[in-house]
Amino acid sequence: MIPPKTAARWQKLIKxxxxxxxxxxxxxxxxxxxxxxxxxxxxxxxxxxxxxELHDFFAKHEQLWATTSMQFSGRRL
Length: 77
Hints:
The structure is a single chain. By secondary structure, the chain is an all-alpha fold. 66% of the residues lie in helices and 0% in strands. The protein has four helices and no strands. Helix 2 runs antiparallel to helix 3 and helix 3 (44-60) crosses helix 4 (62-71). 13% of the residues are buried. The model has no long low-confidence stretch (mean pLDDT 81).
């Protein structure tokens, strides 16, 4: 199950607090792009848009979230 957009893990992912070495290339590319976008123009609105885009990506490709979240097991997101 994909956590809600308000979960802190989304912010941690896009801010780079958690290593983003995904085995899935599209997910890794998206997260890298969102991280660069956030660091170049950080404000609350940009952060919310990045979280929304990442959440929507994983909602559309829910199986990827299962794989991704397993990569983070042992780390608290």
